[in-house]
Write a structure and sequence with these properties.
single chain; alpha/beta; 3-stranded antiparallel sheet; 19 strands; about 20% helix; globular; Pre-SET_CXC
Length: about 575
């Protein structure tokens, strides 16, 4: 055996080779996602080789182990799909009716599930099926609804079942609200017109073309029916059902018809609105709104019922002592809807809706463009123009930040200056229920890093496994330069990180976590920061419902008066 000799080579590494601070891996999110509760099946045993972890209490939060569950049987799936094909083709049963069959001799697995859990059809959509031996082939509507021969109204009704109309989403297959409120979405009711024809004409200042309705010649005889197909008329009817005050110029663009002809059919199919006075009581003798305080105590779902929003009608908003929001299905004139602020964008003050005088700001709400009509809540924030300053979170106006090493792990630094009261970022994570918050609290207690933030009595935000860079903000009891506030944004609870003072570029952000965060053994030394910062000489926070909240929220007294900016004082009831 020959032995080869080699020369020694010295390699010099530039810089420091110290290991990076301890941190938790995290999936980046752009908005909160609803998880609800963790699975009752434990996928693995955490800290199995760590004798310091008390495993027994953690095991009590689960019902079984995932590795003991039966795995998917591909042969059984083929049999189930073939059975469904024959039931549908021979007997005319729908997939929903097949799922409802309860027969011990026909153990059909669920073909369809909710948005958060797939049935066999979705699971089998990515696999190939062998031909059924010695038998005919039956078609099966596996995935998409059948639209052939159906009109626009039918298509719209089916598509609206999976569309989330909330201002924070406006997307299909929303996994936050559709999953929480159920997959059955109520079809919106017809919206009554609020603008008369003469007011509509006065509001439009420019012609859309040579056939604009403003030029006249629109009150002649209706066009022959050949000019308007059934689909054309259905499209206009749907638009008029939900947007009756849309300008004829916009209707013409969508319907691809002449503006004057669209206006002609619009006026003959719709009468002028009946004037109704919208009554928004500032205080109520029958209902004390929890929305007038810092935030609701429960997750509020939109109301959908006949009649006014009262106890007798079963209004969920009334029962939860919450205001009806813009996504509720009650009338726009409903007196239980939040009244919005009375601030005006032409005010000389540049702090529009950013002071206690604003009703929305006073009650820890961002201005809602559907309710706050005069402050410019629907416009982009312009520092040179007097517009609403209380819409930063819903508009996504956050500051540039970067994660850097600090004395105790990682920290969050500003990459641009920020003024006092300005939004820095939104605290984002998974929306979880209390049982899961308790279960995860045991793990957080052991590892000494906790990212749980109570949102209300039902839901908490946890950025342990998914979140954004706000989880890197460190603690400072003596010199915090920002604070966390729970706000109601378009009817939803969201957490914003706001500057408590003017902060320059390059400065680190600090929050006061509060006394409940550092619950340690007596004599244990406290160190700053949840991200990457172990609690020296002691464990992390003790889990429990009394201390799930990590960072304090700023509450405002609601039993005082405010000035709406027009010299009028209004009393706010608790």
């Amino acid at each position: 055996m020959a032995v080869a000799s080699c020369n020694n080579v010295n390699i010099k590494f530039p810089g420091d080779l110290t290991p990076c601070p301890t941190y938790e891996a995290c999936t980046s999110l752009g908005q909160n996602i609803l998880l609800g509760d963790d699975s009752a099946d434990m996928s693995f045993i955490p800290y199995a080789d760590d004798p310091g972890f008390d495993l027994v209490p953690h095991l009590e939060d689960y019902q079984s182990f995932s590795w003991q569950e039966t795995t998917r049987d591909p042969d059984l799936e083929v049999i189930v799909i073939e059975t469904a094909k024959r039931l549908q083709s021979r007997h005319g049963l729908s997939l929903k009716q097949i799922d409802e069959i309860e027969d011990p001799h026909l153990p059909l697995h669920p073909l369809q599930r909710g948005l958060g859990e797939n049935g066999i059809i979705v699971n089998c959509h990515n696999r190939d099926f062998p031909p059924w031996p010695n038998g005919p082939s039956y078609p099966l509507d596996l995935y998409n609804p059948i639209y052939e021969g159906k009109g626009l109204k039918f298509k719209q009704k089916n598509m609206l079942q999976y569309f989330c109309p909330r201002r924070s989403c406006i997307t299909s297959y929303c996994f936050i609200h559709l999953e929480h409120e159920g997959t059955t979405i109520h079809i919106p009711k017809r919206v009554p017109p609020l603008i008369k024809d003469d007011m509509l004409e006065a509001a439009i200042q420019h012609f859309c073309g040579q056939k604009c309705f403003l030029l006249g010649n629109s009150h002649s005889e209706l066009e022959p029916s050949a000019e308007w197909t059934v689909t054309d008329q259905e499209r206009l009817d749907i638009l008029m059902k939900y947007t009756p005050d849309m300008a004829p110029c916009s209707l013409a663009s969508i319907c691809q018809k002449a503006c004057n002809k669209v206006y002609q059919r619009r006026t003959q199919s719709q009468s002028d609105p009946i004037e109704k006075q919208i009554r928004h009581p500032l205080c109520s003798s029958t209902l004390q709104f929890s929305g007038m305080t810092s935030y609701y105590t429960e997750w509020n779902t939109p109301c959908f019922h006949d009649g006014p929003c009262t106890k007798e009608s079963g209004c969920q908003c009334f029962q939860n002592k919450a205001y009806c929001e813009s996504y509720c299905h009650c009338e726009q004139t409903c007196p239980q809807r939040f009244p919005g602020c009375r601030c005006t964008s032409n005010s000389r003050s540049k702090t529009i809706c950013n002071v206690e005088k604003c009703l929305c700001y006073h009650n820890n709400r961002e201005c809602d463009p559907d309710f706050c009509r005069n402050c410019g809540a629907s416009l982009f924030i312009d520092t040179n123009v007097n517009t609403c300053r209380n819409v930063a979170m819903q508009m996504g106006y956050t500051k540039q930040t970067s994660v850097q090493k600090t004395k105790w792990g990682y920290g969050l630094y500003l990459e641009e200056p920020v003024k006092r009261k300005e939004l820095i970022a939104e605290y984002i994570g998974e929306l979880i229920y209390t049982p899961t918050a308790m279960s995860r609290g045991l793990l957080a207690h052991h590892r000494g890093r906790n990212y749980l933030f109570t949102l209300n009595d039902t839901v908490s935000i946890d950025s342990t496994y998914a979140g954004n860079t706000t989880r890197y903000i460190n603690h400072s009891e003596d010199n915090p330069n920002c604070l966390a506030k729970i706000l109601i944004v378009n009817g939803e609870h969201r957490i914003g990180i706001f500057a408590e003072q003017d902060i320059d570029t390059g400065e680190e952000l600090f929050l006061d976590y509060g006394p409940e965060f550092f619950l340690q053994e007596p004599g244990a030394q406290q160190r700053s920061g949840p991200e990457g910062n172990n609690f020296a000489d002691g464990p992390g926070p003790t889990p429990g419902p009394e201390n799930i909240t990590i960072w304090p929220v700023q509450d405002h007294s609601s039993d005082e008066t405010y000035d709406d900016g027009e010299g009028t004082e209004n009393h706010i009831s608790e």
